[in-house]
Design a protein that fits this description.
- The protein is mainly alpha-helical.
- Helix content is 86%, strand content 0%.
- Helix 1 packs antiparallel against helix 2 and helix 3 packs antiparallel against helix 4.
- It is rod-shaped, with a radius of gyration of 29 Å.
- InterPro entries: FlgN-like.
């Protein structure tokens, strides 16, 4: 009878674990949308919008972090019941056990992993594009500054009116 009770307990823990990962999956889907939007605002030089998108992604990450704390608690309970090590082998070992809910958990974990990869790849592209844009802006500023220097040289005017004032009063 105790084994049945333990299995029910494990089954409930696996359900809770799966539910948390499904909730994470929804947050990651939203992050993917935001990351795609980031790509567009970077192209359009809409830096204020970019800051807003990054802020929204941070809020979602805080929610994911809260879920991760709950997930760790479930992992510890499952680990104690099934004698599994928490770490890289935890989920493969758990999902290979013939327990109710492990197939669904495995599929949800695969989906979370895929979304995280997509977001990571897009973030790298966005970061590289932002660096390109930054270099372009720096070059444009250098060109403007160089043009101002050339104009000053041809016109013979200096930026400082104080020195001119003092020289005229002598």
């Amino acid at each position: 009878m105790k084994d049945n009770n333990d299995n029910l307990s494990i089954e409930n823990l696996i359900k809770k674990l799966t539910n948390n990962y499904e909730e994470e999956l929804n947050y990651y889907k939203e992050m993917l949308k935001l990351t795609n939007q980031q790509q567009q605002v970077i192209e359009d030089d809409e830096w204020q919008s970019l800051n807003q998108l990054v802020s929204r992604k941070r809020e979602l990450m805080k929610k994911v972090d809260e879920l991760e704390k709950q997930i760790l608690s479930y992992q510890e309970k499952i680990s104690a019941e099934l004698n599994l090590q928490i770490g890289d082998t935890f989920y493969p070992e758990l999902c290979n056990k013939d327990l109710p809910g492990t197939k669904k958990l495995k599929q949800v974990l695969i989906n979370v992993y895929r979304l995280m990869q997509q977001i990571g790849e897009l973030d790298k592209v966005n970061q590289a594009r932002m660096e390109e844009k930054k270099k372009q802006k720096q070059q444009e500023l250098n060109d403007v500054n160089q043009g101002l220097s050339v104009n000053r040289a041809y016109s013979g005017k200096s930026d400082s009116s104080e020195g001119k004032f003092i020289d005229q009063n002598k």
